[in-house]
Design a protein that fits this description.
The chain is mainly α. 61% of the residues lie in helices and 0% in strands.
Length: 70
């Protein structure tokens, strides 16, 4: 699993993953008519998504150069 080596990379990942997960859940809530609630299902899906994302990044996570200062 990808190892995060800097605070900047950690902050970048938190922002990116949060934005992605919230956007995905908001789309689901709009379609289903349910309010956005962080229940066990959302926590589990988020955990799985983060694990899969970090596995794709290799042993050490390297922040993309073009997005390093967002």
């Amino acid at each position: 699993m990808g190892r995060i080596t800097s605070d900047a990379a950690y902050k970048f990942l938190i922002k990116r993953l949060t934005e992605h997960i919230i956007t995905k859940e908001m789309r689901y809530c709009e379609m289903s008519g349910h309010p956005l609630i962080c229940n066990d299902s959302v926590k589990h899906k988020s955990h799985e998504f983060i694990n899969q994302y970090m596995l794709k990044k290799g042993r050490v996570y390297v922040m993309p150069a073009d997005e390093a200062f967002l």
